[in-house]
Amino acid sequence: MTQDVYTYLQDNRDNLLKKLEEFLSIPSISTDRTYKKDVLQAGHFVADYLKDIGFKQVEIKETGGHPLVYGEWLEAEGAPTVLFYGHYDVQPADPYELWDSDPFSPEIRDGKLFARGASDDKGQVFMHLAVFEAFMKTEGKLPINVKIIIEGEEEIGSENLYPFLAENQNMLTADFALISDSGMVEKGQPTMLYGLKGFTGLEVTVQGPNRDLHSGLYGGAVKNPVMALSHLIASLKHENEQVAVAGFYDGVEALKEEERQLMNEAPIEDYVKTTGVPTTVPEEGYTVNEHIMARPTLEINGLYGGYQGEGTKTIIPSSATAKITCRLVPGQDPTVIQDLIIQHLKTRAPKGVTLDVKPEPLSAKAYKVDPDHPLIQKAADSLAKAFNKETVFVRLGGSIPVVEQLDQLFKIPVVLLGFGTPEDNLHSPNESFPLDHYDKGLDVLINFYNEVAH
Amino acid sequence: MTQDVYTYLQDNRDNLLKKLEEFLSIPSISTDRTYKKDVLQAGHFVADYLKDIGFKQVEIKETGGHPLVYGEWLEAEGAPTVLFYGHYDVQPADPYELWDSDPFSPEIRDGKLFARGASDDKGQVFMHLAVFEAFMKTEGKLPINVKIIIEGEEEIGSENLYPFLAENQNMLTADFALISDSGMVEKGQPTMLYGLKGFTGLEVTVQGPNRDLHSGLYGGAVKNPVMALSHLIASLKHENEQVAVAGFYDGVEALKEEERQLMNEAPIEDYVKTTGVPTTVPEEGYTVNEHIMARPTLEINGLYGGYQGEGTKTIIPSSATAKITCRLVPGQDPTVIQDLIIQHLKTRAPKGVTLDVKPEPLSAKAYKVDPDHPLIQKAADSLAKAFNKETVFVRLGGSIPVVEQLDQLFKIPVVLLGFGTPEDNLHSPNESFPLDHYDKGLDVLINFYNEVAH
Ligand SMILES: [Zn+2]
Ligand SMILES: [Zn+2]
User: Which member of A217, A297, A314 has the closest CB to residue B301?
Assistant: First the structure.
């Protein structure tokens, strides 16, 4: 070899960026059937690129919806196998008038690449493909074995991905999974995301009289459904933000002092400034960082009953409804938590009203990998080296359903190597991706693939 | 005299009913400016009738809105003076297609007179005029002195009546007030309504973040406004229906055993059947009848915050609002109660959110007259005699603002002699008034006017 991988990527930077721009120019909006052909074209772009690099078994797998692309390269004898996941579909771009340049005519301004999908997730998928190309063109091989799935339905719920994963477990066997579809806590701050929260929810309706009643003529005879629901909802959580549902915290891992420290060191946004609240209010005994990252939450997403217009309408409302969701941590089973809440509510249902509970059908377990796991350490080191800054370790209050699926199905670590920034405007006008994250990210991937090969 | 008052009314029944139908044919809908002339015409009908009977000082008093009719007959030397109040305006009649006969073409079917205003309040006002006519035509005089106000804006809030009352207190001096604008608890069941509840209210908004937030990314940092509001609302009332606001019951008269008995004997609707609730839920220590009639209530008329659509939206809502009203009993001051609730809420406002309270500008004190008062007893006896059934004594959970005004301004007893029934469809299509209530009601009025003369 006369050229190393790093140099190859530097020397071919313009061509590769041009190729990425070509990828980003395809309006692969999965939610809009008008773009069905474009979504397919983006799938072909990925499949063709994989074939060009030298991947085998490259296939456009038909699903009930948009196809997914599968490919593999398994000639790194003795080296581990990674299952790499990403998506080539994008969010819609409207309102178009809020974009400073056309969402599907990529443009570089102020060191950022502007286009729908630049960060989520075409840009980050492309980085892996470029690095694979560089390895093949310089060393003639990849450092590890790669199985790759790039789907076209992430932005619409991955409905067809999950059955595909379940039905092809043998084909997809790997030592670990890898996803680059997330971001860093701050621009330039290498971030190791090692945990995500799970999710469950339900809707509860308190049914009172068969119609709204005159509060003068019926007040004193009939239980007020909104008052009854307020009592029920208030009983779910203490004022100190602890959830009051019996058994809710059973099985939740205690936070190790060392992990608390990791979390509290992580730079997070100034919530008072960004949300306008008078003060933050974490669970008693925990910091905001700890609660957001590692403690379960129970939130009321909506509550409504009775009159909502201007002024006064003296009624006893016929019914009242609340929408409740929880973010869960390792040790909590979504179905069990759902049942505990339902039991809690049913036990406390006052007489004079009836309770109707609709469990939310979607749920997910929390995901967490040991931050000391060698793969995570290697990922963190690769990030630190390329960005020349110590990596922070964080867990996220949100959920990424595919991570939970991969975890549950394959029982392998899932490494989340995200290169986005909080300023990327994901799912909004003017989505962008900073070019220095792109450049340094390529170095991270080279470092990481090399490291895990041993 | 060759003819007595009763006989006069019997002999002239057809003519008088025809005259009432003429009155009911005028579409005096006060809320709709299109009917301004008709409202005025109905006022003239009343004024002309009073003049024909022999009332003096009959005047159509201009107000900022529809005029009110005033008249007096003060020649019953040594006898007391009544201030009689009623209204000649009516509710709109739409939806017209739900009427079985034209709302302004009165029709008698099944022993009922169908027309808008038949019961509320033209029919009942007319009964007094007919009785006055009968007295004048047979005895040449009325048994007592009469000052009469019939307004044209009751159905739109009596905005101009209250200033008129306040500005003309000397002219309107009387020994008691009399109103026939209510009903009986059951058809054929003479009912003495001797108390009404007062009213106050407020709206409270809990303001959290400046926009709806992602529940995964912000849950644990930010107080949930809907949860905060649920805690506040739940704190207002115990589960046994007692209001938990400190001072709320201060000054409320204890119910005498004898009054409790009166209330519990009153036939009231079968609330489980009419409203579909599993069971009624009165305040602990009181029956439904007692709570409805004589105990104050606090109701949530509406509550809303966050997502209300189908399915799930995982947000922390930006704010939540509740509308609260109370029905008050004698001894409670609306302004004091409003302040107590506001204080209660403000004291309990949790950190992390701000509270915005809007006091409801309209309020009214409760009204109650001693059921043993001679006037009330005479009214009850007059009812019992004409309907040949013992009179029940009830208080109402609702409010009639003009009663409170008369009470406050003139400090005289207000006698509520109502002849309507629960089946009259007030404010609804097919309003009607049973002719036997009309006929017996005339006898009641003769009895009553004769009785109070002594
Ligand atoms: Zn994505
Ligand atoms: Zn009325």
Answer: A314
> Which positions 291-350 of A are in contact with B (Cβ < 8 Å)?
291-292, 295, 297, 299-308, 312-317, 320-323, 325, 327, 350
Looking at residue A262, its pLDDT comes to 87
Domain boundary among B326, B359, B392: B359
Residue B363 banded pLDDT, cuts 50, 70, 90: confident
CATH number at residue B250: 3.30.70.360
A308, A316, A360: residue with CB nearest B312: A360
Query: At residue A1, does pLDDT exceed 60?
Result: no
Using the mean position of ligand 2's atoms as its centre, give its distance from the Cα of residue A403 in Å. Answer: 66
Among left, alpha and beta (phi > 0; psi -120 to 50; other), residue B140 is left
Q: Which residue, of B359, B389, B405, is where some domain finishes?
A: B359
Q: Are residues B20 and B67 located together in one domain of the fold? A: yes
Distance A185 CA to ligand 1 centre (A): 16
Q: Shortest CA distance to B206 belongs to which of B186, B230, B189?
A: B230
Q: What is the CATH number of the domain that holds A6?
A: 3.40.630.10
Q: Are residues A319 and A352 in the same domain?
A: yes
- A256 and A326 in a single domain? The answer is yes
Give the angle B414-B415-B417 at the CA atoms, nearest 5°: 145
Residues A209, B276: contact at Cβ < 8 Å? yes
Q: Measured in angstroms, how far is the CA atom of residue A364 from the centroid of ligand 1?
A: 18
A363: amino acid identity, one letter? S
Q: Does A218 touch chain B (CB under 8 A)?
A: yes
Looking at the domain assignment, is residue A252 inside a domain? yes
Residue range B149-204, pLDDT digits in tens: 999 999 888 989 999 999 999 999 999 999 999 999 999 999 999 999 999 999 99
- C-alpha distance from residue A311 to each of B199, B324, B362, B371, B397 (Å): 14, 11, 10, 35, 21
pTM, to two decimals = 0.86
The domain total for chain A is: 2
Query: In terms of residue numbers, what domain contains B339?
Result: 198-261+293-359
Mean pLDDT value across residues B75-94:
96
Q: Which residues of A touch B276 (CB under 8 A)?
A: 209-210
